[in-house]
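INFO  loader      accepted 1 record
INFO  loader      residues=433
INFO  predictor   begin
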Amino acid sequence: MTGGKLQLYQRGNSRFWQARASVGKKQRQFSTKQESFEQASKVAEDWFLTLTAKQRVGVLDSGPTFKKAADQFLKEYGVITEGERSDKWTESHAIRLRLHLVPFFGSLPLNKVTPGKVQEYRVHRMTSFNEVNPLSKSKHKPRTKPPSRSTLHDEVVTLRMVLKTAIRHGWLEYLPDLSPPYKSQGKITHRPWFSPEEYKQLYEAARTYAKEPARSHYRWNAEQVYDFILFMANTGLRPDEAFNLQHRDVTIASDDSTGSEILEIEVRGKRGVGHCKSMPGAVRVYQRIKARPKPIQAETRRARQQRNKEGGEPPPPPAVEYPKPTDLLFPGNHIKLFNNLLDRTELKFDRDGKPRTAYSLRHTYICMRLMEGADIYQIAKNCRTSVEMIEKHYAIHLKNTLDASAINVLKPKARARKKEVAAISRAESQDDL
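INFO  predictor   done
INFO  writer      dumping C-alpha cells
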C-alpha cells in the first residue's frame, strides 16, 4: 500500500519500533510505541496515510518553526542595529518573545502563523492576564487588568519583525495580515500637558519647596528639580535627552534675529545627534545650574559615631567643586521628588485621567509655542520630530489653531443680493445713457 515509502526500524537502545517516511519533501520520523512488529506496522501505516492526506489537502505542517525564526532574529537584531538602538529596546524584544510570543507560537511552523492565529493570540493575552506567568523572572503579582492597546501593539511589532526575518531567510513566502480586525480608526487624544495656569502653579510650588525643603539635605535636589522644570519647558527636550546632556553640549549664544541670549544645545537621544535652540528663559536657568556647587558627601552618621567613640578629630570640610564640562546637567532623575511635587499640587492627572510625567513638560513646550503662533515646521525641527506628529497629538486640541474669521463665514441673504443686483443694473443702464 505504501509502495516502499514507509520504513520500520528499531534503535539499539529502544524496544519500540520507529517509522520513517518522506512526505512533503521532508524526511519524517515517528515512534509507534509498539514492541510487536505487527502492531507497529498498523500504527505506522495509519501515521503515513494521515500525513499523505494532510499533504493532499494542504494542511501538512512543514518548514522551520517560529522559535527558530525568533532565535535567528535575536541573533541578528542586536548586531545589525548596534549604536542605532538602545540596549533596553533590544532587550524589550527578547522579553516579549520569552514571556509571550514563543510560548504561544514557538512550536508552530511559520506557514501556520495566520491572521486567525494572531487573533487567537490577542484573545489569549486579553483573557489570561490574571494568571501567573511561569516564565516571568519578576516577583510581581498578576495584573488586575488586561494589557493595554499599546502593549499588544508592541508585541505584534516584535512578531512582525520575526516573520520578516523568516522571509529574508526563505522560510516564509509572504507576511500575513497582522492588523487587528473589528477595529475602526482609533480615537486621537492629546498627550498630557500643563496649561499655562497649571504650569505656573507647578513651577511656583517647586520654587517654594526649593527655598524651604522638608530637610536641609534635600535643598540641592529640590533646586535641581525646580531648574529641571524650567529648563524642560523652555527647551522641549525629551527626558532622556536632558539626562544625557553634558555641560559641554550647551552654549550660550546671541540670537541674530531677536538679539536675545539663548541656549544652543547639541542633543543626543532617541533620534541620535540633533540640535536645539532654547527660549531666552532657559539661559538664566542654565547659569544657575552651572554655578551650583556639586553636592558634598559629608561625614556619615556611622562614621561620626565611630569617631566619637574612638575620640578622633573631625575630618576637614571637603572642598567645594563646581560642574566640569564633562559633567551631566542633571545627574539624577529625581522621579520621586517630582512625583511628590505633582501630588502636592494636585497636578498628577489631567482632566482625562492621564498621568503627567516629566515628558509632559516637553508637551507643554510644544503646545505653548503653538499657542504663541510659532511656525509648526520650525517647532518640529527644533524638537526633532515630524509635523505630522505635532498635528496629530498637539495641535488637534488647541483652540488657538482655529481661525474664527475663516469659520464664521455667513452667506449674504437672498433679499440683500437682489437689491445689490438691481443697483448694479441701474448703474449700468445710466452708463449706457
